[in-house]
Amino acid sequence: MGAWAIAVHGGAGVDPNLPKERQDEAKRLLTRCLDIGISALRSNVPAIDVVELVVRELETDPLFNSGRGSALTEKGTVEMEASIMDGPKRRCGAVSGLTTVKNPISLARLVMEKSPHSYLTTPGAEEFAKKQGVEMVDNDYFITEDNVGMLKLAKEANSILFDYRIPTVGTCGAAVDSHLQMNGLPISVYAPETVGCVVVDREGRCAAGTSTGGLMNKMSGRIGDSPIIGAGTYACELCGVSCTGEGEAIIRSTLARDVAAVMEYKGLNLHEAVDYVIKNRLDEGKAGLIAVSKNGEVACGFNTTGMFRGCATEGGFMEVGVW
């Protein structure tokens, strides 16, 4: 029997001027999710079940950008994506383009367990959801008043907002131009606030899951790193990884898989591997990740101002942080 460990994240790239009350609100949610996961792990719930349980909690709370509270497309609708991976046999499931599935992470798991495929997108994903009897809701359920306001700001600035809740505002009230680019095009700075969870249980089984609504004012049909196995999510016999940040950069670097790769091929431990990929694989991209190893280690890394994150181990270590 080994030792369990768990980590959760709520997005990388935090606004340095983020109000303290928002920081505290985020920390309370991350702490609640950790407590849910810790309770399950103490009861010997398998890692893959804990990942789904925790990410569902994050999707249900509108604070972060997944499920209810997801970012809005340029059309003012929500298109969600998620993936989950079970390390022991590298089984995986992913979904994207969801508009009516209440908990995308659970549909991703059903794709893994109840279909012959690894990835389904709309409309097939939602047809599969109906056949599986998952809970469906109107698209309006996911839309919050705050996000409607932020979409308006993004359209006025003719930009994609990374931190759609805390935009950079100039003296005239318009979003300030940023030097950050995505695929050569300018975007505004700060957090996409994707959510994720990684877990290793007492049996040494690693699992990972990631869920998001994507970028505010994104083009309809845009898919980020979150549902792409090896980019936003990866788990194997060595570790479990969930990423967050600039999706296009994470995709190019296959960031989550690279953590496992340098552990396997270079013999690095978890902390060394996380540090290596953050420093050497993102080029000019901005991102962060959380990871656990089969040995009960936990680590996080980011090259942004901050990352909403929390982690805990069976040995009694627990930490929730922003910066």
Automatic annotation (TrEMBL):
A Pfam family assignment: Asparaginase_2
Cleavage, annotated site positions: E193, T194
Keyword annotations from UniProtKB, A to Z: Autocatalytic cleavage, Hydrolase, Protease
Gene3D superfamilies: (Glycosyl)asparaginase
GO molecular function: asparaginase activity; beta-aspartyl-peptidase activity
UniProt key word Protease: yes
InterPro entries: Ntn_hydrolases_N, Peptidase_T2
Residues reported in the UniProt entry to bind substrate: R222, I223, G224, D225, T244, G245, E246, G247
GO biological process assignments: proteolysis
Active-site residues, Swiss-Prot/TrEMBL: T194
Listed EC numbers: 3.4.19.5
Catalytic activity as recorded in UniProt: Cleavage of a beta-linked Asp residue from the N-terminus of a polypeptide
Assembly: Heterotetramer of two alpha and two beta chains arranged as a dimer of alpha/beta heterodimers.
The protein's name: beta-aspartyl-peptidase
